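Narrative progress, year one. The postdoctoral researcher (J.K.) led the effort to move from monomer predictions toward full complexes, under supervision of the PI. The following entry was the first complex the group processed end to end, covering 1209 residues in total.
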Amino acid sequence: MNQQTPERTGVSGASGPPSATGGSARSTPAGPGFVQTADEVRGSTSLRRLLPFARPYARHFLAVVVLVLLANAAAVAQPYLVKVAIDQDIAGPHPNPQALVGIGALYAGASLAVLLASYAQVLVLQYAGQRVVRSIRLTLFRHLESLSMRFFDTNAVGRLVTHVASDTESVSQFFTNFFLTLVRDGLSLVMIVVAMYQLDARIATYCMAILPALFVISAVFRKRLRQRYQTTRTRLSNVVAFLAENLAGMRIIQLYQQEQRQAQRFDELNRAHRAASRAEYRLSVLFNRSFELLGNVAVAAVAWVGGDAVLHHTIPFGTLYAFITYIRQFFQPINALTQQWNTLQSAGVAAERIARVLAVQPDVRDPEQPVSLADLPDLRGHVQFAHVTFAYQPGRPVLHDITLEVPAGAFFGIVGATGAGKSSLISLLVRFYDPQEGVITLDGIDLRRLRQADLHRLIGLVQQDVHLLSGTVADNIRMFRREISEQQVVDAARTVGVHERILALPDGYQTRLFSKGVNLSLGERQLLAFARVVALNPRVLILDEATAHLDSVTEQWVQHGLRAVARDRTTLVIAHRLSTVREADCIVVLDQGRIVEQGRHAELLAQGGLYARLYERAGVEELADRR
Amino acid sequence: MGNPKWLVRAFFREHWRLYALTTLSILASEAVAVQFPRLLGRFTDALQAGLLDTQAVARYALWLAVVGAGSVALFGLGQQGNGQLGRSLEYQLRRELFAHWERLAVTAFYRRPIGDLLNHALNDVRAVREAFAGGMNNLTNAVFLLVAALWMMVQTVPLPLLAVSMLPLLLIPACVVHWGPRIRAATRQAQEALSSMSDLAEESFSAIRLVKATASEPVELQRFTERVDDIVRRQLGIFRQSGLFQAAIPFLGALSFAVALAYGGAETAAGRIPLGAFVAFTLYLALLITPLQQLGQVFNTFQRASASLQRLQSLLLEPPEIQDEPRAQPLVQVRGEVVFRIASYTYPGAREPALRDVYLTVRPGQTVGLVGRTGAGKTTLVNLLPRVYDPPPGTVFVDGHDVRSLTLDSLRRAIAYVPQDGFLFSDTLAENLRFGKPDADLSELQAVLHAAAFTEALVTFPAGLETVVGERGVMLSGGQRQRVAIARALLKDAPILVLDDSLSAVDTATEARILDALYRLRRGRTTLLVAHRLSVVQHADWIVVLDQGTVAEQGTHGQLLRQGGLYADMYRLQALQAEGRA
């Protein structure tokens, strides 16, 4: 009797091998999957759509089937060997003790075959399954990165990460656990049935009566178990969310002396979780016990039917023994098969989500016959906007009929209030979006005739908030491009004046940064972004100046870096500081999506328009001189 | 009090009767379970000897069913009991943890990431539960089943046969102990690889503009591929271990069976043991596989639980850093005088002092503004007052008493504090406000919301005061959060009010209205206004300018402007920015 304990601890001999997600399906033997949704119906279609990813590994999957056949054949042969031993050599008319050594060796050999075949089957299957998921992940990631900004504007990053990480993981369960169970347990069920019929058709038919009962019990329980498991999980996550929030807000709790009240709230959640967890456990024990009970009753029933048959000499005793073994072997594959039903469902939902993302087409696309960069040996960086109108949502343009010419090598400042359209203007220039009307050209070439990759090599962008990627300082400057040498990195840092600061970091250029970049100051981050642009060396530079308050020393330092970057390139700066635009070749004043003024600092002041009004009223002349 | 070992012991003492019962029940179940093979063996012999008729066969079958059902039911009961007890312990441990955390000083949460603490509350507690639920089941089950099965076997077959057949089985617990930790370690590594990939994906998608603008898609794909390849490698690493392990256990069982078949079969054929004994013996061998496996698991479970208990222990034994001093006095009849005499204050563990030479007196009823750049030390200063951080003795005084000589309870009751981020809890607006005064009625809530200029915003929420604000108040905008936090503090109606840059996300018009209400409501009572924006402090009785941790200037708005120093500088710069925004 195999006493299955629902509270499996440590490594158990459970059917499915563990995986990185430590999937729920294995932490409890009656492992529930995800909540059922309407997506499931389309899920199986989507799974089929993912099959092409598996095609290159068809041979591996075939090998797994062969290995499973081998292992199962050997496993099913074992009770038969025992039957032969009992009926011929032990209890037969001519007992033969010597022959038993041979049979014992055969039995051991069969076991060894099972061992080797199962091990090989796990390795081959997992190899294939992991490779399939790998290629799904890479395809998905490449696709996501190719999508245009509109997609990222409307889809939360967290959800995209979920697609790449956990949806693919669910799908991988389909290619590994589900496939294996279907093949292995499905086959062993079939083979057991065949073997039983071989032995005695009448008793075998009796045994078949138990099959539907088993499936029904298993299916009913699993559905309920899944619901209870979900409840427990939800309540546990409530507990965790409460803890996370309250630990973060502990200062407030203590300052307002609400410790008791919050402890009471916590107690409520904690109790709710305990109740759910107990209910779940109760059901899972009930399920396992009923399965076990059914197993024992089945053995008794076989003893009854088979015993009668032995009594009437319709079958020898060995056959009865084999039947008792087979009926016990029935339970394991059925249990495993119903368990995998959940895997199939969650994999289907995940596949549907993945397929939906893969079906999204990028708004901004490369032309079919792009202008080759090789044909344009030296671009000068002459930028022109001609009657450009742009809206994020149809009918609500944020830029109206913008016409602007930036000569090669010029330094242009763009100023205007929040919402005037400054950021939209520069987003168009890097083709994060395409305008609805008008044309933007670079040295006379429509941007839409260039490949995006080429365009982005020609036009560099420094954003307001500097994104650092996890890697070393040097990697961040060269953007992980191996073709940019250490020397070029150092030169770029020197040019913008951040070299000394980098050397002062614990590991200099090899200091590891984190994505949030907390180990660098605001000014250092800004300068690092400048160095990045110098290293990548684009012809045209667009810079969205950081608004953050910098102290005056840092401010000067950043301004110096900015001038170094702007040298020898066409530069457009969204300026938040007067010192940035005072020396500009041209200042463009935007207001409500239109260019209202344009000219040098002195000219605009003389004009007495919006720019001058702001400037004078604030009394900045004096301030600017102080710097 | 909080020692978990003590807790666990107390738990045992409290529930020993139930534990005794579950143990007994499992024991009884095993005693019944081992009858099953014996019954089958006797059935075999009787059948062979031709002693049975149809009725007797049916009787045997019935007995088999009864024995089978009995053992299953008894085991289920014991299992159930242990499982429920384990869940009670889990609940108690979590309750104890939270109560302890509420007593700790806030600094304790800065030292350790909250994620770590959650990990303790989740995984360590679960590991202990597993030991007390599943672990107990397995232990009781394994020990009794082994003993009982062995006892039955000794009676069934000769000892040499038993010993030789058992040999391969003895390796099973060793396998579990050997592979268990290895597989777990490999799984953890794979999980780390997976989260490293998720991190990269998140980083890359968040920086998508940078990635696109620098044409770095291929580079990012390359970095992503490295992570994905690492996952593949680690996953296969798990299966190299677990695949072998999962194949090895049945193999050892089969090996033992093969020996029994050859050796025992020969003995049976030679007539030295009856066929029924042989049949029972082979069934007993199969019976042994599970408990032997469980023994190994129990070893692993208890080892893990003891490590978890150790961690929980060191967590719960951490003493609260900020608590009442031995002879602390309550603060009564607060006038609201605040005095700082700080020669130097350094955060625990920091090298550079955060504050130097801060000597300030706030007279009862005064409104004092504290301004300065980010990092000037404003927040540090006001956090020393309610002892969020402990000031050195003799440096911070309320009504002439060193704050460290006062009871925490009375000190904090005297102070209403508004944090910069306007921290709210995921509850209704009303409940959040009642943090300030648990028994406040509706009209009081409305009054403070009005003072905090939140009345117009309130009507935009269909559920009104019953609106649930979401985790940390995410359903509200930054400015709305700050205003609710101000209302919460006003509801507390304490002698001293501290606003820690709590108007930074509020527009200037609203700011003026709130300040108006503040001056009206707080007339005659002490108010400390920390601000980055100077318009907030302009009308304060006194303004203190902090720079690099020390007092740079102080005076009234007019005085400071005339001085033409840092304050005047900041004022002009902000005026310009305000125009730029307008």
